[in-house]
Amino acid sequence: MKHNFERDCEYGKHVFEVGKYCIQFNTFLNNQIGLQVLRDWKENCLKWCYHRLEDGKLGDQKYPDKWRQRYEGIYESRNLGAGVAPWNLHLFTYISSRNREIWMKSKAKIFKVVFYHFEGMKYLGRDDICLNIWNPCVEKTGKKIKILYGEYLREIRDIRTFLDKKYGVTFEHMLISKDIFLEKDYSLMQFCKDDGIIDGLKKWMKYRKYNIVRINKIT
């Protein structure tokens, strides 16, 4: 499944760093070729699988970049609805949500969201959450966030409440301080450094508005 990064000046950098494909949904045919690909991937990961870029590798994720050259029968999904994610959400326009189906549009193509990749989401204290939306400055981002994240966060809340009441399981150790989180890469200073004072301030305000949100506002 491709990342489907935006084809902008950063596209090559993203593909180089994390790969063309995303390890979010993969299927392997139960035949000789399919099982060979799976075994080779397993062996590669056992030999080297670290969360750092090294010699063209990154975790388990960049190995699939070479599969189409090495094996026959590799199919690359072209369904835009499979793998909507924080890094490409801004490319799609929300159309409607009906019968528990979410519909979006990319240019002139309307498609149904098959699954969403909730990558990088972090709880900042008990009431706030960072959604890790890459480009929150696009119009109607708030609507897409409420539709995609609302039910997901409600389900997490209900499961956590059940685990706490039934078994005394809590998740306090997984909370991240909002102040610490915003000190470095997501600070106002960093935004202004990257984009200038005026544009940096605008982007920082948008980032705070749509990325650092109160959980009860979208659930």
Explain this structure to me?
The chain folds into 2 domains: 11-70, no CATH class; 118-218, no CATH class. A hairpin with a 3-residue loop joins β8 and β9 (128-130). The radius of gyration is 20 Å and the shape is globular. By secondary structure, it is an alpha+beta fold. The model has no long low-confidence stretch (mean pLDDT 91). It has helices at 11-18, 32-47, 67-70, 141-167, 178-181, 188-195, 197-211, 215-218, and strands spanning 53-54, 57-58, 82-84, 93-98, 101-106, 109-112, 115-116, 122-124, 128-130, 212-214. The protein has 8 helices and 10 strands. Helix content is 39%, strand content 16%. α6 (188-195) crosses α7. The two termini are 29 Å apart.
